[in-house]
Amino acid sequence: MTDIHKQKTLALAAVFQAAALCDQLARRGQADPDALKVLLDSIVVFDTDNPNAIYGSAKNLKLGLRALENSLTDAGQNQPESAEPLRYALGLIHLEGQLNKSNALLHTLRQRLEQSQAQLAHFDHDILAQGMVNNFASIYVDTVGTLRFRLKIVGNQQRLETAGIPEKIRACLLAGIRGAWLWRRLGGRRWHLLFTRSQILTELRVLIREAQQS
């Protein structure tokens, strides 16, 4: 696998990790904190297109790699728990494409993210602090949330109405937008998921083995 294909697959896995975390939060009211931290950290990493610099090793995206694998295989697609993460991931890719057409929104997004990065020190550099999560959720609402296309999150209504859960979901969606942006920058296109599925799966399984060994 060439380095660019590896990087592109890691970026796509980040999108699916965000989708899987949103699904966990919506259905259970909780999500893997390590997987969540990796994604939220990525939101305030700027000026690099290197997934390893943004996410670290493949091990940090294990949840996303598995979610992507399930979405690309016939066996995985037949599992009910795979349906929503796939829909969310495709929605995030679409939203990023819409966002990328608005220079004004991109400018606002960058400005607000830089402010959040500066505020991290006030939360003892804890990216999972509720204040940081709230910041990211607010940024999502004020930028991506103004686009015509809306991504509907479904799950346990009681969980979805629990304080803090909607904010975590929006923060995850913002991280998913970041992954989708990176994937596109590296040459990823939505049609690749349909017409180059076998190639992606081959690359993906190499990364899954790498994640298991690290």
From TrEMBL:
Keywords: Cell membrane, Cytoplasm, Membrane. It is found in: Cytoplasm; Cell membrane. InterPro entries: HflD (IPR007451), HflD-like_sf (IPR035932). The keyword Transport does not apply. It comes from the Bacteria. One of its GO terms (cellular component) is plasma membrane. Pfam families: DUF489 (PF04356). It is a peripheral membrane protein. Its main location: cytoplasm. Gene3D superfamilies: HflD-like. The keyword Cell membrane applies. Belongs to the HflD family. PANTHER family: HIGH FREQUENCY LYSOGENIZATION PROTEIN HFLD. HAMAP family: HflD_protein. This is High frequency lysogenization protein HflD homolog. The lineage of its organism: Bacteria, Pseudomonadati, Pseudomonadota, Gammaproteobacteria, Moraxellales. The gene is hflD.
